[in-house]
Sequence to fold (147 residues):
Amino acid sequence: MGLDMYLTAERYLFTFGDSTEDSHAIALLNEIPLLGKGDMKPRSIRYEAMYWRKAHSIHKWFVDNCQGGIDDCRYTDVGIEQLYDLLEVCENVKNKDVLSVFESVDTYDFELMAGKLDQYVKTAENLSKILKTPGIERWDFVYNSSW
Fold:
């Protein structure tokens, strides 16, 4: 067992107004022969935006900045601005500016010494790509974890 962490991106599909893109997506999804789908209709698309394994300090960032300090593995909404904040933190850690980023330096220094710097590098790279995606403001993000 260990800490598994997920950032999910979901976009609701609109079936009214000027929604040509969404109508096209709904039509394509309706053509997929899923067992048990019956007459159900797609209303959203959900993607795994990011996955981490045992990235404890990044998990702590989500707990402290998105979950009000309560670590209970619940699904938590994450705003675009919060993702920009996490990107900045990861860029600072990636650049080894740990002292200016975290209060509990010992915990984070330990993880950096234990070879966890790659978690920050990958997170920074992936978040940078995600946040530069055209239309990303139309997506909702959710974080959850599992111990």
Observations:
- Helices lie at 20-30, 56-66, 80-94, 105-131.
- The longest helix spans residues 105-131.
- The chain has a mean pLDDT of 86.
- The chain has four helices and four strands.
